[in-house]
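The material for today's practical consists of a large collection of protein records. An example says more than a description, so a record of this kind follows:
***
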Amino acid sequence: MSYATLDDLIARAGLVEIRQIADRDRDGEIDPEVISEALAHADNLVNGYVAAKYKLPFTSVPDLVRTWAIAIARHKLHFQGPPDYVVDDYKDALAALKDVAAGKIELPIASGEIPQASSGSVIACIPDQVFSKHGLRGW
């Protein structure tokens, strides 16, 4: 499940802009593979940050996550140099995702999607001792 859709991109940027930046073969139509690639890029980037704190995939996409995915995908679609307002949205999305990973922003999701904290105990596996004062006698 993708965090954002073509309809989300159109709702945010408008059909004219999306057609301009996603029509790579210049036939006047939005290229679905270009949109898919941008949305997959956004999903991967979002997952990289939120997986530190949340169990993925989400059962339902939080609105914040959708907003960030739209900003990231839109930035990706502007491959020839995004306008400043698109760059600003992208930077804001990355900053917010970093805050999620650091625990400064909590996403409004079901409690079952937050991994349980461990008990804090440490488990170590130590190999048998190879060198001892008896094993090195004569060296």
In short: The chain has one domain: 6-113.
